[in-house]
Design brief:
By secondary structure, this protein is mainly α. Helices cover 78% and strands 0% of the residues. It has one domain. The protein contains 13 helices and no strands. Helix 2 runs antiparallel to helix 10. It is globular, with a radius of gyration of 20 Å. The protein starts with a helix and ends with a helix. About 2% of the residues have low confidence.
């Protein structure tokens, strides 16, 4: 696969992940924890296991032949990512959507890109290619900040509340969002440091591309544990287990399946695309993946009326953010060719 095709797959994967959240809009009277638990079962457990079983001839051999440290590393990174997804809701509820998401995604992009760069290819850091990657990620952070400002101005112009959903100190919300960003980046770290596990999958008879399905199965299994614990806690606290038995909600299970498929196969496409870029794929591909997620989720926000009645200034900031994100992707493309 060419590097250009890999870039396209990463963008397509980001588009799928920027689309999956739409299902959350159409599941009343279910609560967030209901649809999220169904989505998590499909995206983090059933689909990864099914695809790995279908494409890796001997999954048991993957577990027995992988170095224990690598196997546990992938699994624990997955748990970390699951914790990050849980913390994201708590942090955003305290800082507000615009500021909370900007901080979270900014930290996720930076950590997820810079850690593999420094650990796997330290010799590149001060080389032109490494410097271009750093400039590209910083440019992406500027784009995320512009979109955050746009979101805040949209809230004000639409007459929405600008205060956080959960009262609390700014410092607490900031710490939670930073921690969420650090933990959320671990999904990319699971991929970046998964070569021993992928090699074991190849040894078990899988192709080099299918070997990543075993990696995702292990990492997302860890993520499922964290999400299952949190959603179960919410359904117990809020007494929303009974919502699964409400009449005329059967279609919500289908919505959860579609959400899960979009999210999971978005990750699969990211892995295939980043792997085609070689050793530097997890460094360059991750910020491109996040940028595509932001752009497409924002496009869907426009399409579903979230920006109706917002001020021209808010829309200008959003357009500026899009342009800067596209520039960041272009710079990453240049870095990949250097």
């Amino acid at each position: 696969m060419s590097e250009w095709m890999g870039f396209v797959l990463i963008v397509l994967g980001g588009a799928m992940q920027g689309t999956y959240y739409l299902g959350l809009k159409y599941v009343e009277p279910w609560k967030w924890e209901n649809i999220w638990s169904v989505y998590a079962v499909f995206s983090l457990l059933l689909l990864p296991v099914a695809l790995a079983a279908a494409t890796v001839p001997s999954l048991r051999q993957v577990f027995t032949q992988s170095p224990s440290a690598a196997l546990w590393g992938v699994f624990l990174y997955g748990i970390g990512w699951g914790i990050g997804s849980t913390l994201s809701g708590l942090g955003v509820a305290r800082l507000g959507l615009a500021m909370g998401v900007a901080i979270l995604l900014g930290v996720t992009a930076a950590i997820g890109s810079f850690v593999p760069l420094i650990v796997k290819t330290p010799g590149l850091v001060l080389q032109p290619k490494g410097m271009m990657i750093i400039v590209s990620v910083v440019t992406l952070l500027v784009g995320v900040l512009l979109i955050a400002v746009a979101g805040k101005k949209r809230e004000v112009s639409q007459g929405g509340a600008v205060k956080a959903v959960i009262p609390g100190s700014f410092a607490t919300g900031l710490v939670i969002c930073v921690l969420s960003g650090i933990f959320s980046s671990m999904l990319n770290l699971a991929f970046a440091f998964s070569k021993p596990v992928a090699d074991a999958a190849v040894g078990a008879g899988a192709s080099s591309s299918a070997a990543l399905n075993a990696v995702w199965m292990i990492a997302l299994g860890g993520g499922f544990l964290a999400n299952a614990v949190y959603t179960s806690y919410l359904m117990t606290r809020n007494k929303t287990w009974k919502n699964f038995a409400l009449p005329q909600t059967g279609v919500f299970w289908l919505i959860g399946l579609v959400m899960g498929a979009l999210w999971y196969f978005g990750v699969v496409l990211y892995g295939r695309g980043a792997a085609s870029m070689g050793e530097i794929g997890s460094v360059i591909g991750w910020p491109v993946f996040l940028a595509a997620m932001i752009v497409f989720s924002s496009i869907w926000g426009f399409a579903t009326g979230e920006w109706k009645g917002s001020s021209p200034q808010a829309k200008r900031f959003m357009a500026s953010g899009f342009v800067v994100l596209m520039l960041a992707c272009a710079l990453l493309g240049v870095a990949n060719r250097m």
